[in-house]
Backbone:
C-alpha cells in the first residue's frame, strides 16, 4: 500500500512544507522566550513542544504516504472514532478549569476535540462528495443540507457539552466553510442566515453557561471588570500595543516576562510575538499564514476529485478560522474563547492535528499525476 | 471525472473565499497597526507604568507527624532579602545602605547579586537568604530609602527532632536542573524532597503554589492588591512510627553501627526504623560545603544510607526459626526427631563447626532452637530439606524480594538456589553451599526489614504484610494494611516454633536471656553473622561478627516484632538482645532498671 513512486517527490508541494516549517520555527522561538528561566534554558513546555513537533512531522510524512482511496474508504471510520472519543471524554474525561476536555491514555493526556476537527473534515468531505456526485453537483438546497447538518452537529454538540464553546464553534465554522465551497444556492443561503440569527436568542437563554455569557459581555466592555474577566483583554492589548513597530526585542517583553497572561504559551502566544517582535514580526507571521491558506485553496481548486477538494478546503478552513479567532481575541476584536493558534500555540493535540491534516493534503495533492484531467 | 456542475462557478466560489480571507487579513493588519503604530507609544507607556507585579506565592509544605500526632517535620517563615534591579534608583547608594544595615561588605553584596539565581527578568534576585530578625527590623525602618529592595517571605523546612528517623524522613534541598524539567510548577530556588518520605510524597507534601497580583508605586512598594490566587498548603502526613519508641531505639545503639526495625505484626506497620549512625537533616537547610557532603555520602559510616532497608546481612541463626518451620511443614522432621551434635558436622573432608565446640549432644528441635545448635540444622537443611525447599520457604517468608515499603532504596536481599548461583557465579550448586544456608550463612542475605516482616508472619499466624511506614494524609487515609500473601503452613507448626523462640529467651539454656523483660513473655532468636572471609581492619585485627536478634512480645498475642542488627559487635545474645530489652521495656511502659542497662555495656 505504501509504495513510494519517484514522481511523488517531484509532485510534492515544497512551498507548502517551507511555510509550515517556518511557522513551527517561529512557534519555538516564542515558546523559548515565554518559558525562559535562568537556570533552565529550555522550559518543560518548550521541550514538550519540540518533541511534539518532531512526532508531528513524522505523522505528516506518514499520512502523506497513504493513497487517496485509503482516506476515502476510512473517512467514516475516522469520523466515528472521533465522535466516540468525544463520548469517552464526557464519561471518563478529567476536569481541568471547570470543563471535561482531556482523556488520559496512560501518562499522555490528549484532547480529542482537537483531533475531531480533522475527523469531521474527512467525514464531511466523504459525505458531501458522494452526495454531490449523486446530485450532479447542483448547489445545495435547504433539504439536501440536512445530511451534512447532522454530520457537523454531532461532534459540535458533544464538544459543547464539555463545555467548550470555542472549539464547538470552530467545528461549525469548518463544516460551514466546506459546504459553502461545495455550493449552496442563493435562496438557501438567505434562509440559513435568518435561521441562525433566530437561533441566537434561545441559545443565549439556554445553551450558554454563565461564564461564557460573562466573557461575551466583558468583550463588549472590558474596562468594566479590569481584574476579573476583562483582565486578559486589557493586558493582551497592552502587550500587543507596547510592541510598537519593531518590538521590544527577543526575551525583552515586559508583559511576557512578568507573566501577566497566564495562557501566554497557549491561547495568548500571539501577544508574546507582537510584544517582542512588534508590528513587523506580526506581519511576517500573518503573511506566512495567508500564504499557507491561499496555497491550500489553490490546491483545492486544481484538484480533480471532489473528495480531495473538500478535504483541502476543510484544512484551509481549520487554519483560517483558528488564526482569525485566536488573533482576533489577542488584539481585542473578538471575545476570549479558547482556540489555539495553529502551529504556534503550545499544545500537543492541536499541533499534531494540524500537521496530520496538512500531511493528508500533501499526500493527496502529490498524487495528482495519477488522475488525468 | 467531473468535479462541479460548472467549473467557472466553482472557481468563482473559491474567488469569493479568497476575497473574504484577504479582507479579514487586511482588517487584522489594520487593527495591529492601530494598536502598535498609531497607539503604540500610548501602550508602551502603559506597559512601562504597568506597575502590577505578579508575585509567586510558594505553597507551604505539608507537615509530617508520627502516629500519635507528634511533629517530626514542620516549617518556619524565612525572610529573604532580594533586589529587583528594575526598581532600584541608585544601585551604588542602595548597596552602601544595605551594607551598613546587614554588616555584609559592599563587594560581597555585589558578588552575591551577580551570582544570584532568578527565575527570569523582572523577578527579584535573592541577595541574602534567611536574614535574622534584627536585620529584618533594621531593614523595615529604612525601607523607604531602599527602592527595589524586597523582603520575600518563604517557608523554610525544620526538623525539630534533628537526627531522629532522618534516613526515612529524608530531607529537602534546592531543586537541581534535572528536577526542574519535571514540572512547570517548579522554579529555580524551590525546595524539593531528595530522599525518604520527603521525596516519595513530594506531590502530596508540596501543595499548590499561588500567585498574587499587586500594584506597586515607583519605589516598588506595594500599593494595593489586585487579586490573588491563594496557595494551598501541602497535605500533612502521618507516619506509622512512634517517635518516642524511635528515640529510645536510636539511643540504644549508642553510636554503634546497625539497624533496627520495630513492626506491628498484626498489620505490617513500622513502629520504629533505626539506621545508625544518623544525620541531622537541618544541615541541608544551608549550602553544604564539599567537605560536609563528602563526610555524609562517602565516609565509612554512610549516615545517609538507610541500613534497615538498603543493606543486607546474613541472617545467621535467626534463620533457624524459618528452617524449623520448613522442617516441620515439609514433614521432614517431627518435634521429636533428634540429631546428635558432636560439635561439628562432616561433609566430605570438610568440617562445619557448631558454635559450641564440645557439642550439644543429642538434641530435639526445641533444644536445637533454644541453644542454637548448628549441627541439628546442618542435618535438617542438607540431608532432609535440600536447597530448593529452603529456598521455597525462605521466599514464602519474604526473603529474596522487595516487600514494597513506600520509601525508595529497598534492597531485595538474596535467597539463593542453584539457578541463582548459576546466573551470578556461573557455577553449579554444591552440597557444601547448602550447609551454611541452613544456618543463615553463606549466600543468604536479608534486610532488617525482611527479617522483621518474616518474624511478623511467623507470629501472626502466617500473614506476610506489606511493610507500611506511611499511615495517612490529613484528608484521606492510605490503606491501613495490605496483605502480600498468606503462608500456607498448619497453625500448630507456627505456634510450636513460636514456643521454641520463647524458650530462647526464658529457657534454662536460652541464648537470648538478655532480652527478657519483667512481666511479659518475650520470644526471640539470637544470630551471629560471620563477616565474609574473616576481613581484617586497619589494625590487622579480625573484624568482629555482626550481632543479630529478632524478638516478639507478648508471646501469646504479639503486639511488636523487633529485628536488630549491630554491625561488627560480636555475638547476638550478648550485643543485640539487650537492645531488644530496652525497646520492649519502653514499648510496654516498664520502668528502666538502670543497673541492668549499665551491665550491658
Residues:
Amino acid at each position: 500500500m505504501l509504495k513510494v513512486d519517484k514522481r511523488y517527490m517531484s509532485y510534492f508541494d515544497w512551498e507548502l512544507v517551507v511555510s509550515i516549517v517556518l511557522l513551527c520555527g517561529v512557534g519555538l522561538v516564542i515558546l523559548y522566550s515565554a518559558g525562559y528561566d535562568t537556570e533552565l534554558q529550555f522550559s518543560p513546555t518548550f521541550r514538550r513542544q519540540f518533541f511534539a513537533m518532531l512526532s508531528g512531522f513524522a505523522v505528516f510524512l506518514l499520512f502523506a504516504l497513504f493513497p487517496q482511496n485509503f482516506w476515502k474508504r476510512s473517512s467514516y471510520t475516522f469520523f466515528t472514532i472521533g465522535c466516540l472519543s468525544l463520548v469517552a471524554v464526557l464519561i471518563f474525561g478529567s476536569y481541568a478549569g471547570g470543563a471535561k476536555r482531556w482523556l488520559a491514555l496512560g501518562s499522555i493526556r490528549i484532547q480529542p476535540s482537537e483531533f475531531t476537527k480533522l475527523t469531521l473534515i474527512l467525514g464531511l468531505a466523504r459525505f458531501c462528495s458522494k452526495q454531490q456526485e449523486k446530485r450532479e453537483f447542483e448547489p445545495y438546497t435547504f433539504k439536501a443540507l440536512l445530511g451534512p447538518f447532522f454530520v457537523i452537529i454531532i461532534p459540535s454538540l458533544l464538544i459543547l457539552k464539555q463545555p467548550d464553546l470555542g472549539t464547538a464553534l470552530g467545528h461549525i465554522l469548518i463544516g460551514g466553510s466546506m459546504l459553502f465551497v461545495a455550493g449552496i444556492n442563493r435562496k438557501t443561503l438567505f434562509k440559513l442566515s435568518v435561521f441562525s440569527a433566530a437561533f441566537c436568542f434561545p441559545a443565549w437563554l439556554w445553551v450558554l453557561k454563565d461564564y461564557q455569557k460573562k466573557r461575551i459581555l466583558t468583550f463588549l466592555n472590558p474596562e468594566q471588570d479590569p481584574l476579573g474577566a476583562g483582565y486578559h483583554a486589557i493586558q493582551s492589548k497592552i502587550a500587543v500595543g507596547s510592541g510598537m513597530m519593531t518590538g521590544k526585542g527577543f526575551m525583552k517583553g515586559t508583559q511576557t516576562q512578568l507573566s501577566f497572561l497566564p495562557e501566554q504559551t497557549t491561547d495568548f502566544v500571539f501577544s508574546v510575538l507582537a510584544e517582542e517582535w512588534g508590528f513587523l514580526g506580526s506581519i511576517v507571521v500573518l503573511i506566512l499564514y495567508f500564504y499557507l491558506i491561499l496555497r491550500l485553496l489553490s490546491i483545492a481548486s486544481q484538484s480533480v476529485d471532489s473528495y480531495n477538494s473538500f478535504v483541502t478546503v476543510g484544512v484551509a478552513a481549520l487554519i483560517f478560522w483558528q488564526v482569525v479567532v485566536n488573533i482576533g481575541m489577542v488584539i481585542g476584536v473578538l471575545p476570549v474563547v479558547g482556540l489555539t493558534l495553529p502551529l504556534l500555540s503550545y499544545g500537543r493535540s492541536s499541533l499534531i492535528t494540524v500537521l496530520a491534516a496538512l500531511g493528508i493534503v500533501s499526500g493527496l495533492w502529490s498524487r495528482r499525476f495519477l488522475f488525468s484531467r | 471525472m467531473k468535479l462541479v456542475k460548472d467549473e467557472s462557478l466553482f472557481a468563482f466560489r473559491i474567488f469569493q473565499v479568497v476575497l473574504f480571507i484577504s479582507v479579514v487579513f487586511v482588517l487584522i493588519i489594520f487593527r495591529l497597526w492601530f494598536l502598535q503604530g498609531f497607539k503604540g507609544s500610548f501602550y508602551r507607556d502603559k506597559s512601562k507604568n504597568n506597575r502590577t507585579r505578579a508575585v509567586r506565592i510558594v505553597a507551604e509544605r505539608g507537615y509530617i507527624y508520627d502516629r500519635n500526632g507528634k511533629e517530626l517535620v514542620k516549617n518556619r517563615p524565612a525572610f529573604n532579602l532580594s533586589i529587583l534591579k528594575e526598581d532600584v534608583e541608585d544601585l551604588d547608594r542602595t548597596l552602601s545602605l544595605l551594607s551598613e544595615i546587614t554588616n555584609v561588605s559592599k563587594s560581597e553584596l555585589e558578588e552575591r547579586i551577580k551570582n544570584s539565581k532568578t527565575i527570569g527578568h523582572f523577578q527579584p534576585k535573592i541577595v541574602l537568604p534567611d536574614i535574622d530578625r534584627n536585620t529584618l527590623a533594621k531593614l523595615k525602618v529604612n525601607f523607604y530609602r531602599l527602592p527595589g529592595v524586597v523582603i520575600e517571605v518563604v517557608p523554610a523546612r525544620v526538623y525539630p527532632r534533628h537526627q531522629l528517623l532522618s534516613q526515612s524522613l529524608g530531607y529537602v534541598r534546592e531543586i537541581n536542573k534535572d528536577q526542574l524539567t519535571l514540572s512547570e510548577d517548579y522554579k529555580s530556588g524551590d525546595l524539593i524532597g531528595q530522599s525518604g518520605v520527603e521525596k516519595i510524597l513530594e506531590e502530596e507534601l508540596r501543595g499548590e503554589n499561588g500567585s498574587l497580583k499587586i500594584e506597586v508605586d515607583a519605589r516598588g512598594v506595594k500599593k494595593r492588591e489586585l487579586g490573588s490566587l491563594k496557595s494551598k498548603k501541602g497535605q500533612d502526613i502521618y507516619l506509622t512510627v512512634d517517635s518516642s519508641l524511635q528515640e529510645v531505639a536510636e539511643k540504644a545503639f549508642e553510636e554503634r553501627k546497625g539497624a533496627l526495625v520495630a513492626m506491628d505484626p498484626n498489620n505490617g506497620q513500622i513502629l520504629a526504623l533505626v539506621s545508625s549512625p544518623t544525620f541531622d537533616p537541618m544541615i541541608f537547610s544551608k549550602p553544604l560545603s564539599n567537605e560536609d557532603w563528602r563526610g555524609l555520602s562517602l565516609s565509612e559510616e554512610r549516615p545517609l544510607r538507610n541500613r534497615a532497608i538498603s543493606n543486607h546481612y546474613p541472617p545467621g541463626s535467626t534463620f533457624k526459626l524459618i528452617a524449623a518451620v520448613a522442617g516441620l511443614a515439609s514433614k521432614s522432621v517431627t518435634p521429636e526427631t533428634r540429631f546428635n551434635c558432636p560439635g561439628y558436622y562432616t561433609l566430605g573432608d570438610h568440617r562445619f563447626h557448631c558454635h559450641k565446640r564440645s557439642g550439644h549432644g543429642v538434641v530435639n528441635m526445641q533444644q536445637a532452637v533454644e541453644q542454637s545448635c548448628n549441627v541439628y540444622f546442618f542435618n535438617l537443611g542438607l540431608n532432609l530439606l535440600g536447597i530448593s525447599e529452603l529456598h521455597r520457604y525462605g521466599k514464602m517468608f519474604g526473603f529474596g524480594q522487595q516487600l514494597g515499603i513506600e520509601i525508595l532504596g529497598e534492597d531485595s536481599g538474596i535467597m539463593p538456589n542453584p539457578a541463582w548461583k548459576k546466573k551470578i557465579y556461573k557455577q553449579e550448586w554444591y552440597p557444601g553451599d547448602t550447609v551454611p544456608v541452613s544456618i543463615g550463612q553463606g549466600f543468604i542475605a536479608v534486610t532488617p526489614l525482611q527479617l522483621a516482616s518474616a518474624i511478623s508472619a511467623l507470629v501472626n499466624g502466617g500473614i506476610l504484610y506489606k511493610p507500611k511506614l506511611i499511615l495517612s494524609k490529613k484528608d484521606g487515609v492510605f490503606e491501613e494494611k495490605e496483605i502480600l500473601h498468606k503462608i500456607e503452613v498448619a497453625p500448630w507448626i507456627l505456634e510450636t516454633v513460636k514456643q521454641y523462640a520463647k524458650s530462647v529467651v526464658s529457657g534454662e539454656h536460652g541464648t537470648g536471656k538478655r532480652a527478657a523483660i519483667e512481666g511479659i513473655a518475650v520470644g526471640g532468636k539470637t544470630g551471629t553473622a560471620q563477616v565474609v572471609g574473616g576481613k581484617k581492619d586497619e589494625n590487622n585485627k579480625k573484624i568482629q561478627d555482626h550481632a543479630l536478634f529478632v524478638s516478639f512480645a507478648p508471646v501469646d498475642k504479639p503486639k511488636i516484632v523487633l529485628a536488630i542488627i549491630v554491625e561488627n559487635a560480636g555475638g547476638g545474645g550478648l550485643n543485640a538482645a539487650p537492645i531488644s530489652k530496652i525497646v520492649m521495656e519502653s514499648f510496654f511502659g516498664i520502668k528502666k532498671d538502670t543497673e541492668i542497662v549499665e551491665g550491658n555495656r
Q: What stands out?
A: Chain A is about 70% helix and 5% strand.
